[in-house]
Design goal:
alpha/beta, 277 residues, 19% strand, two-stranded antiparallel ribbon, 7-stranded mixed β-sheet, 2 domains, Helicase, Ruva Protein, domain 3, Rossmann fold
Length: 277
């Protein structure tokens, strides 16, 4: 079967499965099988696929039709200037987290050789993006999941950032006592009763411990106070509609210059504050 016919058939299958963007997903999957860009698909749309290529494509489409996230099916996902390996051991990097990195870089602007701590590194998205875009930064990244750390280590190697990013297994701050110029985290913030209302891609496939709130936001905000330099800042990603409450928490804990930032769609999703004096 030719590529264009396969695309149409796959898009129909994904639409029946209620995937949000069936045509685009089919294009991504076929492009990966053929080792080309999505644009190239239309330049060679009449080309027949080899039997092995067609079989592989149908396998990937079947996985996506079961609502497995496209990023997991592809095995990688773009984040700012990086392409990261992702699988069910880690959350899929999201556009709102790109805005978190942007805020971190703004706060680090002008600092030479800043020390940064990423609490809950997951795939490594935040830690690696900061290191890649602020070449003099040194980033310590912690996670209590050995699987997540393995993914982060692979992404660190792919990005060539082993000298800038240290990975440590442990809860939250993992015994890190030296002060940091910036502490950042994308902590779990989905309430347990909200999980079943999320898309199947999230509720059924992404790691629950990285999704469901368990007091991490409060714990990080509390403990970070004693681990920041005098001019250090804490940056947290928050759930939609929760930024105001997190900002109030920062103020109660004594943080100064507390601000709320927006994600790429204009929603309040980022809270930061300077170290208490």
């Amino acid at each position: 079967m030719r590529a264009r016919e396969l695309l149409s058939s796959a898009a129909e299958e994904l639409a029946r499965a209620e995937c949000p963007s069936p045509r685009v997903d089919a294009e991504w999957l076929l492009a990966q099988v053929l080792g080309v860009t999505r644009t190239d698909l239309y330049a060679n749309g009449d080309k027949p696929l080899e039997p092995g290529e067609e079989r592989r494509f149908r396998e990937l489409v079947a996985r996506r039709a079961h609502r497995e996230p496209l990023a997991y099916v592809l095995g990688e996902w773009g984040f700012r200037r990086l392409t990261l390996r992702v699988d069910p051991r880690v959350l899929i990097p999201r556009p709102e987290t790109e805005a978190v990195v942007g805020r971190c870089l703004a706060l680090l602007s002008g600092l030479d050789e800043p020390r940064v701590l990423d609490v809950g590194v997951g795939s490594g998205a935040i830690a690696l993006a900061i290191a890649e875009e602020h070449p003099t930064a040194f980033v310590v990244a912690t996670d209590n999941s050995p699987g997540a750390l393995a993914v982060a280590a692979e992404n660190r190697a792919r990005a060539g950032l082993a000298e800038q990013v240290e990975l440590i297994q442990g809860e939250l701050f993992a015994g890190q006592d030296r002060p940091f110029d910036l502490i950042v985290s994308n902590p779990p913030y989905v309430e347990p009763d909200e999980l079943d209302g999320l898309e199947p891609e999230v509720a059924q496939y992404e790691p629950r411990q990285a999704l469901v709130a368990s007091g991490a936001t409060e714990a990080i905000a509390d403990e970070a106070r004693s681990r920041l330099t005098a001019v250090g800042a804490l940056v947290l990603e928050t759930g939609d509609g929760k930024a105001g409450a997190v900002a109030d928490l920062f103020r109660r804990l004594g943080y100064e210059e507390v601000s709320i930032g927006q994600d790429l769609t204009g929603r309040d999703r980022i809270v930061d504050g300077r170290a208490p004096r």
